[in-house]
Write a structure and sequence with these properties.
6 helices
């Protein structure tokens, strides 16, 4: 990545490898499903109502409303911060799918790259949302343990023991899942089995039910 956030250097691939798809997470989807701005908004709404109820015991309605409205400033600050983080993570991330691997490039302060060869992918899944975006978690076979915190938020939630890298909030996720499925199927006969695996591992893309609108 260059010194400007959101600007990546051109991906240089070895001979025989070519790019199939490249993209980044949707900032709005990150704000909704990673930073949970809706839940934060509900929390502040409940806090406003609670302050109104408490204030009405000893103040008139107009004074209680003014007193409770002081919560608007911290609410606005929280929304700006969370929205800014979502935009930052979106612009500092690039996902790439080639005919041999998946690359996750991320990190605004400390740029990092996770290389996931198809030979190490034991299973791939897709979770689509009604806005067309979705997540693509990858179950990997690796002797080196992946660090959940270093990968966050590009990791499947709550999988702390068996960490799964995840292409998160991908736009048009069904199309990307289809590209990945075909690439995995094409690479299957050529991919050597990892040493730690005694039997061939099936590679597939499994589809979850469509989640609620986000």
């Amino acid at each position: 990545m260059s010194m400007w956030i959101g600007t990546f250097d051109e991906l240089v691939l070895p001979e025989g490898e070519h790019l199939l798809w490249q993209g980044r997470p949707k900032a709005r989807a990150l704000a909704l499903r990673v930073f949970h701005v809706r839940l934060v908004a509900v929390y502040f709404a409940l806090l406003f109502v609670a302050r109104m109820i408490i204030s009405l015991d000893h103040q008139p309605w107009s004074t209680a409303a003014v007193d409770a409205s002081r919560i608007v400033i911290p609410f606005a600050i929280a929304m700006v911060l969370l929205g800014g983080l979502a935009l930052l993570y979106s612009r500092s991330t690039r996902y790439s799918v080639t005919n041999r691997r998946v690359l996750l490039q991320y990190g605004a302060v400390l740029p990092m790259t996770l290389n996931v060869p198809f030979a190490q992918v034991s299973n791939a899944a897709v979770k689509a949302y009604r806005d067309g975006s979705g997540d693509l978690p990858l179950a990997v076979i690796s002797e080196q343990r992946l660090a959940f915190l270093l990968l966050w938020p590009h990791v499947r939630p709550w999988r702390l023991t068996h960490v799964e890298p995840m292409l998160r909030c991908v736009p048009e996720v069904r199309i990307v899942a289809d590209i990945l499925a075909k690439a995995l199927a094409a690479a299957l006969p050529l991919a050597p089995e990892p040493v730690a695996t005694a039997m061939p591992v099936p590679r597939l893309v499994r589809s979850f039910a469509v989640a609620s609108a986000a």
